[in-house]
Design a protein that fits this description.
Elements: H1 32-46, H2 57-71, H3 78-95, E1 102-106, E2 119-121, E3 124-126, H4 134-145, E4 148-151, H5 157-163, E5 169-174, H6 176-189, E6 193-197, H7 210-217, H8 232-240, H9 244-250, H10 273-285, H11 292-303, H12 314-319, H13 323-347, E7 351-352, E8 355-356, H14 358-362, H15 364-383, H16 386-389, H17 391-420, H18 428-438, H19 440-454, H20 461-482, H21 496-499, H22 505-513, H23 516-528, H24 532-545, H25 548-567, H26 573-586
Parallel strand pairs: 1-4, 1-5, 5-6
Antiparallel strand pairs: 2-3, 7-8
Helix pairs in contact: 1-2, 1-3, 2-3, 8-11, 10-15, 11-13, 11-19, 11-26, 13-15, 13-17, 13-19, 17-18, 17-19, 18-20, 19-20, 20-25, 22-25, 25-26
Length: about 600
């Protein structure tokens, strides 16, 4: 089997293509004979791949299409072939993982719908050994070997288990619909994973090639021929910074007394008033979030050290990071958390991390004060290590942080001035200027801080500023789109940008595209709108009429391309690889349908150099 992919350099992914519908690509080969033929070709094809670096989804699809073309089979099997090819790609890495560090993930739809005695708990189906279906058989075999087993369906708990460090590899079963949603995150995070696709997407009494799963479960431990790089250890290291124990060690509290988590449901009433601000701030730091900014700082620092933490034994290299490096990464998150507290007040948001926002819990004055405390803590986390880092290095990192802080405030201020003013007309370019100030500085600061921990900044300042600007704008546009679909990690309602009267690209595109009468209706709804549900429903109708969701998605693609153009010229290779990884993860958006409208042309020169 000869692969013809043009991806000669795994560190430089191919250009992104337009998003499109994929339902026609998710057929399962009808016969066992055909499935075996394709699987055998996948096994041979993997021997030709460079397994030292992660395989992109685009490359995976290209290879799958090559295999099917040479077999003369339908492109409808592309999705199925991608899963099998990915499994073979990771086989050696799964084999190198002890049974006790593997997770077996089984779908609830394998159970027999009639008479199943199992019930669901917080982790999925609490399967019993009743002999009515194959779930119990596989569970028993896996647990005897030392596996952890989870019976669920696309549960977010899986990623938490992985990132939390409980397991290092997955053997799973799922339908192609679920696998398509999961494959992006599995590939991006670099999680060794093997999967057996179900024969159908029915939600009950389905089937699979059971001997394939048995073979995967029994894959013996052995050292891989090639070690695949992964950011998993760095993702874990960033999250661990804000575990209570690590946080207390790296940034010891200055005030003694009861912790907020020990208040026994009494709020802050039994905490020393002087220690109260610190207690709320530390509790907020440990609450949640993806910790993407401290990850960026740690990963950038590591990339300038030859990317040793991305190797399979990367946990050992992460353990060797100095506390000064860790505290610098933490500072990026404290500034981010402070901005969230203040943003939530300014927008009167209801939820953050699935819970009530701080100003709703403790009152606006206290929340403002907590945000200010987090800003002070961020600067202190760097300044206290000036001796260890070197005074010049510490001063440059503090300058990076303060510059980002000021520009972010300017962007937020511009948004507030528009929101609270009387002039509601807005051009798309005006919104993009706000986004360039409001969002990009955080990415820039995280990257530059990590770089300065390892080397001088001279050659990186300009390209990283450009990269962060393009990435930040694209990220903010995606955030606008997510406001209409909900976000389980953050806001629990939709249309909050409209209700909060925030300037968004969607709003500006609607004003630009709608006829005059409907423009006036939009403006009237904004200032003198009907009750909440009616307002959101009508704005949604007008947005769809103006096709703003598709237009915004296309602008995400344009700014992603610009970020990729900057990244492709960055050295060293380990840092370039990280920048491409950030583009794919920060701008992850699943599989939206292909927009049918022309791409909007907005000149990059129109965006100010912030």
């Amino acid at each position: 089997m000869v692969l013809t992919s043009s991806e000669s350099d795994p560190a430089v992914p191919p250009k992104k293509t337009g998003r499109r519908k994929t339902s026609h690509l998710k057929q399962v080969p009808e016969t066992r004979e055909l499935r075996e033929r394709i699987r055998e070709c996948c096994l041979k094809a993997v021997d030709q791949l460079d397994r030292s670096n992660l395989l992109s989804k685009e490359a995976l699809e290209t290879f799958a299409r090559d295999i099917l073309s040479q077999l003369g089979e339908s492109e409808g099997y592309v999705g199925w072939t991608m899963v099998v090819l990915s499994s073979e790609f990771w086989r050696d890495q799964v084999a190198a993982t002890p049974f006790s560090r593997r997770l077996l993930l089984l779908p609830h739809c394998l159970k027999h719908a009639q008479g199943c005695p199992a019930e669901y708990d917080e982790f999925g189906l609490d399967c019993r050994t009743c002999g009515a279906c194959s779930i119990a058989d596989f569970r028993s075999k896996a647990e005897d070997l030392g596996y952890k087993v989870l019976v669920a369906e696309g549960s977010p708990i899986v990623m938490k288990i992985i990132v939390g460090g409980y397991v290092d590899a997955i053997v799973g079963v799922a339908c192609l619909n679920v696998l398509e949603k999961a494959i992006d995150k599995v590939l991006l995070a670099g999680i060794p994973c093997m999967a057996v696709p179900l024969h159908s997407s029915d939600c009950r009494n389905t089937s699979m090639d059971e001997d394939w799963l048995a073979e995967m479960i029994l894959t013996e431990k052995q050292q891989p021929k090639v070690q695949t790089r992964s950011y998993l250890h760095l993702i874990r290291a960033a999250g661990e910074l804000f575990n209570t124990e690590q946080l207390e060690r790296l940034a010891p509290r200055l005030r003694a007394g009861p912790r907020l988590e020990d208040a026994n449901g009494q709020g802050t009433t039994n905490i020393d008033p002087v220690a109260c601000t610190e207690a709320i701030a530390y509790d907020f730091l440990t609450r949640g979030g993806k910790h993407s900014r401290p990850f960026i700082t740690l990963a950038t620092y590591d990339a300038m050290q030859e990317g040793r933490a991305t190797l399979p034994d990367g946990a050992r290299h992460c353990d060797q990071f100095s506390d000064a490096v860790r505290r610098t990464a933490m500072s990026i998150e404290t500034f981010h958390k402070a901005s969230l507290v203040h943003d939530d007040i300014e927008d009167d948001d209801l939820y953050r991390y699935g819970a009530e926002t701080l100003h709703r819990q403790h009152g606006t004055p206290t929340a403002i004060n907590v945000g200010d405390y987090l800003i002070g803590l961020g600067y202190r986390l760097v300044s206290r290590d000036a001796e260890h880092l070197g005074h010049q290095v510490a001063a440059e990192i503090l300058d990076v942080l303060s510059n980002a802080h000021m520009r972010l405030s300017e962007g937020q201020g511009a948004e507030l001035m528009w929101r609270d003013g009387r002039q509601r007309l807005l051009q798309p370019i005006d919104v993009l200027k706000i986004y360039a100030l409001k969002t990009a500085p955080a990415f820039e600061a995280a990257l530059l801080a990590g770089l300065r921990l390892a080397s001088p900044l001279d050659q990186y300042k300009k390209p990283i500023k450009q990269f962060a600007q393009h990435l930040g704008i694209a990220f903010q546009i995606l955030n606008d789109l997510k406001d209409w679909t909900g976000d389980a990690d953050n806001k629990l309602t939709t249309g909050t940008d409209v209700l909060g009267k925030r300037p968004t690209l969607l709003w500006a595109l609607a004003l630009e595209s709608l006829p005059t009468d409907e423009q006036k209706e939009v403006l009237n709804l904004f200032d003198h709108g009907p009750p909440t549900e009616t307002l959101v429903a009508r704005v949604s109708e007008l947005y769809r009429e103006a096709d703003v969701f598709h237009k915004a998605a296309q602008l995400v693609d344009k700014y992603q391309q610009r970020a990729e153009n900057v990244a492709q010229n960055i050295e060293p290779e380990s840092f370039r690889r990280l920048l491409y990884y950030l583009i794919d993860t920060v701008l992850y958006r699943g599989n939206p349908t292909l927009p049918e409208t022309p791409i909007i042309e907005i000149s990059a020169n129109a965006i100010p150099q912030t």
